[in-house]
Design a protein that fits this description.
heterodimer, A: mainly alpha, MetI-like fold, 2 domains, about 70% helix, globular, B: about 325 residues, mainly alpha, 15 helices, about 75% helix
């Protein structure tokens, strides 16, 4: 026992080096936050005021939307994206595990594709298809164009929801897959079916409860993605999603921009803490 | 696998008809997935590949037999012009700057992230580990516009809190003394590190935790020096994971758009170039140029992702 501790100590760093690294990291990661908070509360006279935070909730100029409306818009986007992704992937992956294990690798490769095609590449494809089917002069537009135009409408932006669901596929696939692999799936289904449960009951009462952690985790990653997504929304000319709204705040009100940024960071952090309260482990961004 | 075979056998013995009737619905059950990804993912990608290699030119003028007016119809022809165009002029500059920025941020973020992860893994407190993991999960997802505004508030050349403080307290100007500008390569690197270092910490912690204490003991008992332990025991386990993570960081940095756009909307990176090409509706053929640029990005990201996945599989053997 004592030899093992000495070995580990001998082959790792001294305490000094470790604390230096941790202290530098703390300065780098906390510094900008403190600086930005400082920036938002100082007044030209050298005093302190919370006006910038009050302005967040002040009525927006005519014709523009306010903080709350933009935030709610993004929240709704994320709710629908999560619903679509889970409704698509949970049954698909249960089927794969139960009956079609040979197709698993095909589905996995498709789900990992969005890692190779960054959002900006996907949006080129979507935007160009939209332009290619756009009507020529004097034409009302083909049914395909009308359908796309309807899906693009800012009041019910199915186009955005679908794109976000695609972007979420890599980590949603991984999270659900991990959850399913931990379950004796075939046994559970066989037992439930033999006891006379319908497929609906089997999935909702037998399979979903033990998958809860995976589903919450997948949902949170999807939520984080949609709440911060700027590329697709801005290039497709949506103005209401929260990050786009934040970016178009007038630069003259730099204090307000910073205040909203600090505020939204704290919101996301609160959401993450709330979710980790459910016993969910930390998230992994990017490639799984 | 055994469980699966057994249950199939049981089902097959007792209810042969029910089992057979599953085959068709099981296939059908995947239809929504393939339909959705086909339309929302595969179709846009195929369309990019097609558009990158075609251009639309006016066809020959002819007289319409019904109206007797001169008309011409557009013709689509294959060409490499778009790709050539995407690799020259400002497009080439943007691609090169993107690669440069991504390589620098990946290397610096990778090394710093590794140091931080190592400092955390070798520390004794589990509370520290918990805090760093949670904080990394938050900050790795915290890119984009809000992050840019945090750094503008801190380091903007005129109003940034840190800039002003350094000038007032020590008479140091970041620009004059260090040549540091937030909207330039160094500044954008500093901002990117804010989400790349936590990402590195998240992906490297499992690999570093996989370095078992017994290996170090065994090495020491066999008389290995510190350098020998690192060279022959630790490095072969950690290196594939480290290299893979560098690729991950590179791709993350390479595809970033919002952060750099919010700091400097005219900074020459390929994502900003693509957005500019797409929004400029004036010139014809811009869609084809956008598609070619997108294809350039794919050509860079695709091999990296494949190598990353391969390295990850190699690494996971040691971490099992």
């Amino acid at each position: 026992m004592s030899s093992s501790t000495t070995t580990v100590r001998r082959l790792s760093w001294g305490a000094g080096a470790r604390w230096l690294v941790l202290a530098l990291a703390a300065v780098y990661f906390v510094g900008p936050l403190i600086a930005a908070i400082n920036f938002t509360v100082k007044t030209p006279g050298g005093g302190v005021s919370l006006d910038a935070y009050g302005q967040i909730f002040a009525a927006p100029p005519t014709g523009q939307i306010g903080f709350v409306e933009a935030l709610v818009y993004s929240l709704l986007l994320s709710v629908f994206s999560i619903a679509l992704t889970l409704a698509l992937m949970v049954p698909t992956q249960i089927l794969l595990h139960l009956y079609l294990p040979k197709l698993k690798s095909v589905v996995e490769i498709i789900c990992l594709l969005p890692l190779v095609f960054p959002p900006v590449v996907l949006v080129v494809g979507i935007s160009n298809i939209y332009k290619a089917v756009a009507p020529q002069a004097g034409d009302d537009g083909s049914p395909l164009f009308l359908a796309l135009k309807w899906a693009r409408d800012t009041d019910h932006p199915l186009l955005l929801v679908a794109t976000y669901s695609v972007m979420a596929l890599p980590f949603v696939y991984r999270t659900i897959n991990t959850g399913l692999e931990a379950l004796p799936l075939a046994t559970l289904v066989e037992a439930a079916r033999n006891l006379g449960a319908s497929w609906w009951t089997t999935i909702t009462s037998v399979l979903l409860p033990p998958l809860r952690t995976s589903l919450v985790n997948a949902g949170f990653l999807c939520f984080a993605l949609v709440m911060g997504e700027y590329t697709v929304a801005s290039i497709l000319l949506y103005t209401k999603p929260f990050p786009v709204w934040l970016a178009q705040l007038p630069a003259a009100s730099g204090q307000e921009q910073a205040a909203v940024s600090v505020f939204s960071l704290l919101l996301v952090e609160a959401a993450l803490l709330l979710v980790s309260g459910f016993g969910v482990k930390g998230s992994k961004k990017g490639m799984p | 696998m055994t469980v699966h075979l057994e249950t199939e056998a049981v089902a097959g013995d007792s209810q042969p008809r029910r089992r057979r009737s599953f085959a068709a619905p099981a296939w059908l059950g995947l239809a929504p997935f393939f339909a959705f990804t086909g339309v929302a993912l595969i179709l846009p990608i195929l369309f990019i590949c097609w558009q990158a290699f075609v251009k639309t030119v006016p066809g020959e003028v002819h007289r319409d037999p019904a109206t007797h007016q001169f008309v011409h119809s557009d013709q689509t022809m294959f060409t490499v012009d778009n790709v050539q165009n995407s690799l020259s002029g400002i497009q080439a500059t943007s691609l090169w700057t993107s690669v440069e920025l991504s390589a620098i941020t990946a290397l610096v973020g990778g090394v710093l992230g590794l140091l931080l992860a190592y400092a955390v893994v070798t520390s004794k407190g589990s509370a520290l580990k918990q805090i760093v993991t949670t904080a990394s999960a938050v900050t790795a997802n915290f890119g984009g516009v809000p992050l840019a505004f945090l750094f503008i508030a801190s380091l903007d050349a005129n109003v940034g809190v840190v800039t002003v403080f350094l000038k007032d307290a020590f008479g140091i100007s970041l620009l004059d003394s260090f040549g540091f500008k937030l909207p330039a390569l160094a500044g954008i690197t500093l901002v990117y590190l804010y989400f790349l270092i936590p990402l590195m910490v998240l992906v490297m912690m499992p690999a570093l935790e996989g370095l078992k204490a017994q290996w170090a003991e065994a090495a020491e008992n066999l008389g290995a020096s510190k350098a020998q332990y690192w060279r022959w025991v630790a490095a072969p386990v950690v290196l594939p994971s480290f290299l893979g993570s560098l690729l991950l960081l590179f791709c993350s940095s390479f595809s970033a758009y919002a952060t750099v756009y919010a700091i400097n909307s005219s900074f020459p990176v390929v994502t900003i170039r693509i957005a500019a090409v797409l929004s400029g509706n004036v010139l014809s053929g811009q869609e084809n140029l956008g598609a070619a640029l997108a294809l350039d990005m794919i050509a860079i990201v695709l091999p990296m992702t494949v190598i990353y996945q391969w390295l990850q599989r190699r690494t996971s053997r040691w971490l099992a």
